[in-house]
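Marked as duplicate of an earlier ticket. Keeping the data here for the record.
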Amino acid sequence: MIGGSEAGERFALVEHPMPPRALAAPMHRHAREDEYSFVLEGRMGALLGDQVVFAGPGDLVFKPRNQWHTFWNAGDAPARILEIISPAGFEEFFREVVERGGVTRIAPEDFAGLCQRYALEMDMRSVTGIVQRFGLRFPAEVPNPAGNARD
């Protein structure tokens, strides 16, 4: 919605639509940016280190850099969150994933390269446990008819 170039690279604002019971990502941590998730619709769950939090419309969840975290749609209806990324730059990761056809179509070595370029650590082994623990599915990509990232 707002790219870093529009905000002097101080922050970016990205919308994340999530289908019901969808895990957004494996446990991961960012070395360069903080994230703030503002829930517009639905119910978001998040694992922040070992702490589980739930948020509804109007709630804000802080995910600081260097903290292992993940988030998901914790409800049976679609959810939408606004993600504030500070400083900007990481919004380009989402664009690159979409340009490559989505997370399920990227070769593992290409995905590893993307993660390295954006100083992102991913724990792919975390998916099974999170999916089972919270009754989720992964991956759960949202089609984007325009063919570009939603930022």
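See parent ticket for discussion. The two ends are 4 Å apart (CA to CA).
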